[in-house]
């Protein structure tokens, strides 16, 4: 990437696009940490349309039937595996619950993404030397 800055991410559901491999469409799956604690559900996949890459999971947690639920973003680097209709991540429930809040009006700002990647301890996808891992590990 020549700009070396974060790109605007758009929800896959809002983009009119689809996932090429339906097995990688994890929307609606439960997200758990490695100890089995539930973190929420994958509400959407946040896509970098310019690079044609999913960069983050949009997770909803709490609330009742979607009312009062909180929304947060989690970089796909956190995904350890996808198994048994669950997405397992390497962050704890408490860590994810305390993450910087997702506010759509701020989410287009590079500072928000810098803060989010720093909070989780991952190299931002736009930084030199960032891993080029596929957007999800394969299902076992």
TrEMBL record:
GO terms for biological process, alphabetical: photosynthesis, light reaction
One Pfam family named in its UniProt record: PRC
PRC-barrel domain residues: 23-95
Annotated Gene Ontology cellular component terms: plasma membrane light-harvesting complex
Domain of life: Bacteria
Protein name: Sporulation protein YlmC with PRC-barrel domain
Originating species: Kineococcus rhizosphaerae
Classification lineage: Bacteria, Bacillati, Actinomycetota, Actinomycetes, Kineosporiales
């Amino acid at each position: 990437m020549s700009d070396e800055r974060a790109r605007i991410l758009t929800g896959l559901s809002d983009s009119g696009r689809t996932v090429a491999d339906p097995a990688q469409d994890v929307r609606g799956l439960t997200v758990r940490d490695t100890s089995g604690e539930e973190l929420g559900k994958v509400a959407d996949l946040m896509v970098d349309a310019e690079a044609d890459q999913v960069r983050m999971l949009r997770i909803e947690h709490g609330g009742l039937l979607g009312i009062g639920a909180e929304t947060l973003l989690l970089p796909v680097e956190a995904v350890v595996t996808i198994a048994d209709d669950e997405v397992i991540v390497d962050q704890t429930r408490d860590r994810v619950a305390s993450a910087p809040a997702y506010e759509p009006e701020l989410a287009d700002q590079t500072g928000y993404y810098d803060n989010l990647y720093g909070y989780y301890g991952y190299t931002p996808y736009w930084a030199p030397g960032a891993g080029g891992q596929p957007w999800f590990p394969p299902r076992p």
